[in-house]
Structures are given as C-alpha cells and as structure tokens.
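Researcher: We're teaching a course module on how sequence relates to structure. For the next exercise, students receive a sequence and then see the predicted structure as tokens, so they can try to spot secondary structure elements on their own. Here is the exercise chain.
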Amino acid sequence: MGSRFGCMSCWTSIRRIGRRSGCWGNFSSMIWTCRQAPSTTGVRHVYQVNRERLRHPLGSAKFQEQDALLHRAVEAMRAAAVEELSDPKLRQPCRKVLESLQKHWTGLIRFVEDPRIPMDNNASERAGRGPAVARKNFYGSGSLWSGRLAAVMFSLLATLAHWKLNPRRWLTWYLESCAAAGGRASEDIQPFLPWNLSDERRAALGARTTTPSAPDTS
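Model: And here is the predicted structure for the students to work with:
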C-alpha cells in the first residue's frame, strides 16, 4: 500500500514561506519571475504553463508541447536553486527557504507527471471555509454526537457540490426512498452515490428549478 501513496506539497505554501522570510525577490529560483529570464522560469511561469497544459486534451499535440515546456521550467527552477545554494554569501533566511524547496521537491513536482494533481491545495482550503465561517454563527457543536453529525453533513454537501448536484433534490430523493422502505435507511448505499448515478438521474438531481417555489420557512 505504501508504494501507492505519496506526500504532496503545496506551491502556495512554499511561496508564502519565501515572502515571510523577507528574501522574496533576492533569489531567482523562488521569485515570481526570474531576474535573468523573466519569461522562462519562476513560480509564476510554472503556474502559467501548467494552466495552459490543462486546457488541452491529455495526449494531444498541444498538451505534449506544454508538457515539455513545463518539464523544462521545473528543471530550470531546480537548477537555479542548486546554484544559489552553492553561494557562500547567500543570506541565512534565503538559504532556509531554498533548503525547504529542496526538501519538499518530490512532493512539489508530482503534478508534473500526473495532471490530475493540482499545484496547491487552495481549492481544499476554500472548501473548508464554509464550515469555519458557519461555526461563528452557531457557535460550534454542543456535544460529540452533534459534532460528528455536522462533519458528516459537511462532507455530504461538499461531495454533492463537487458533482454539481442540487443538495435539496438529492436529500429529498434519498429520504423519500427511506420512507418508502418503511422509514429505514437503505442497506445498499451504492445506488445513491453520485458517481454511480445514471445520466438521467444526474441531470434530474442537478437541474435548477425553473418555476418559483414556495418560501422556505423551515
């Protein structure tokens, strides 16, 4: 199992470390655009090339072209970091940032070989913002069971949102199925999972309401 999993690192976190160190802009491998070659290296360039790569179908000529550019940009950044670390006059805060870059390098470049992997975890952090803000409104959960229920519901709603399903429609469908089964939860959850839905069911649960609905007074 261990060989199937690996640690990923976040480019945004690395960039944040560089900014906080006070050395941002003092060395080319971590700056947004490199002083020596502003258009061919740097974090910003890597983001731009990867974004362009993802616009094209996997395996297409355009994808291959951008993929080659991405490999070169990443290698140029790695080489610049190695060169700058060899400078005995490099300030200690900058050295620590570059050493952190090297330490996390394997996790940072996983996205290069697997386009499904994002360069950062910004989407995950944004997804967790809703529960964090809501907690300030209802002051969290007053007991262990309610905290567990909240975690389950947050996970469920996030999954439905990821699959572009209407939560109210999905929950209505699921609860009506439970009612039809005598008020019991279905023993087989597989038919209700978003990735197992038929195209027709997914379209029905994801469709927006076209007629005005009664005010929600719940």
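Model: If you want an answer key for the exercise: Residues 141-206 form one domain. The chain has two domains: 2-124, 141-206.
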